[in-house]
Specification:
Shape: globular
CATH superfamily of the largest domain: Type I PLP-dependent aspartate aminotransferase-like (Major domain)
GO molecular function: identical protein binding; L-aspartate:2-oxoglutarate aminotransferase activity; L-tyrosine-2-oxoglutarate transaminase activity; pyridoxal phosphate binding
Pfam families: Aminotran_1_2 (PF00155)
CATH class of the largest domain: Alpha Beta
Enzyme class: transferase
Structural class: alpha/beta
CATH architecture of the largest domain: 3-Layer(aba) Sandwich
Bound molecules: pyridoxal-5'-phosphate, (2S)-2-hydroxy-3-(4-hydroxyphenyl)propanoic acid
Radius of gyration: 21 Å
Order of helices and strands: HEHHEHEHEEEHEHEHEEHHHHEHEEH
Helix content: 40-55%
Family: Belongs to the class-I pyridoxal-phosphate-dependent aminotransferase family.
Strand content: 5-15%
Number of strands: 13
Distance between the termini: 49 Å
InterPro entries: Aminotransferase_I/II_large (IPR004839), Asp_trans (IPR000796), PyrdxlP-dep_Trfase (IPR015424), PyrdxlP-dep_Trfase_major (IPR015421), PyrdxlP-dep_Trfase_small (IPR015422)
Amino acid sequence: MLEHLKEQPKDKILALMAAYRADARDTKIDLGVGVYKDASGNTPVMRAVKEAERRINAEQTTKAYTGLAGDPAFSDAMIDLVLDGAVARDRVAAVATPGGTGAIRQALELIKMAAPGATVWLSDPTWPNHPSIIKYLGMKSKSYRYFDSDTGQVDYVGMLTDLGQVLPGDVVLLHGCCHNPTGANLTMPQWKGVIDLLKDKAAMPFIDIAYQGFGDGLAQDGAATRLVASSFDNVLIAASCSKNFGIYRERTGILMAVAKDEAQRDLAQQNLAYLNRQNFSFPPDHGARIVSTILTDAELRADWEAELEEVRLGMLDLRKQLADELRRLSNSDRFDFLAEHRGMFSRLGTSPDKVEMLRADHGIYMVGDSRMNIAGLNADTVPVLARAIIDAGV
Ligand code: PLP
Ligand code: TYF
C-alpha cells in the first residue's frame, strides 16, 4: 500500500529552517520562518500568557471535551478583538480551529461545500500554504497582481485590473494586515476601492488575518477587516493567535463566517461544527483558553497589549534602522520601502541567485523569494545585513 505514495513538495520556509540549523557559522543570521524573536534571538512566552497559564492550571477543574465549536468564551472574545462590533453578533458564526492554518483549511472546505465551482483568487505572491491547500482540495484558483518589485509597493492598478476578471460567486482572499510575504499593504482608500469592486462583481471576500497588532496597532490592524465585514452579506475570516499571543505551538485560531442574518448564521454555524467533526472533532483548547483568559481580564489584557506594543515598536525600529543604513550605504532612497512596510516581513525584491549569494557568502538566511523576517535582526546585525545587501549588488 504505502509503496504507491509519491514524494510531496516540501515547505520551502520550513526547509530553510533546517538548513539554518545545520550551518556551523556563528555569524549566521536567521531571517527565515515567521516567528517573532527578541534582540537575543529568543521567542519568549509573553508575560500575560504565563500568568493566564498559571491561573488555568490552578483553577481548571476538568479537561473533558468542549463543544465541537470550542469554548464559546473564546469565540466571543476573538470576534470582539477582530470585529469590535462592526457586525451584529447574531450574524457571526465561529469555530475554534487548530491555528490560523486550520481556519483557512475549514474556510476552503466550507467554500467547496457551498460553491464547488467557485474560483479562489490569491494575491501574487501569497503565503505558500494558500495555493497548496487549495490544490490539495482540488479547488480552482487564480492569482491577482499585488506587488511591484521595482518600487516595493502594492501594484494597485494591476490588482484592480486582475480582480476585474472575478466572476459572481468567486472568492477573493485578502490578507487583513501585514501581508505575507511582501510587507506591502493597501491603504484604507485602496481597501475601499477593492470593496467597491468586489461588491460590483458579487464576489465574496475571505480575509486571512494572522498578524493583528504587528503592523500599526491592534485597532488599526483590524480596521480593514472590519470595513470588509460590514460591507458584505457574507465574509469569511480566518484569524490566527499564533503570532500576537506568541502561542505558535498551541495551535490556536478561529474561523468566523459573517452571515446575512441570524437564520443564515445558524446554518453556517451548524456546517462549521460539522466540518470540525469531520476533520478532528474538538478543536485544541489550551491556547484558546489562554486567549480568552487574557482578553476577558482587564489587567492581563492591558499587560498583553503593552507587551505586544513593545514587540511591534521593536520591529518598526529595526525597519527604520535597516532603511537608514541602506540609504547611507547606497546613497539612494531605493530601500526606503523597508520602513514603510508593516508586520514581520519585507520582500527585498531580488533574485533567487542573490538570495543564495547572501546565504553562501554571508550566512544570511532569507526565503528564496527574498522575504526577510525583520524580527530576526537586532542592532548588531542590521549593519551586517545592509553591507551584505550592497555587496551582493541588490
Ligand atoms: N496566514 C498567514 C498569512 C500566515 O503567515 C500564517 C503563519 O503563521 C498563518 C495564516 C497561520 O498560522 P498558524 O496556523 O500558525 O496560526
Ligand atoms: O510564513 C511563515 O513563515 C509563517 C510560519 O507551513 C509558517 O507563517 C511557515 C510555514 C508553514 C506554517 C507556518
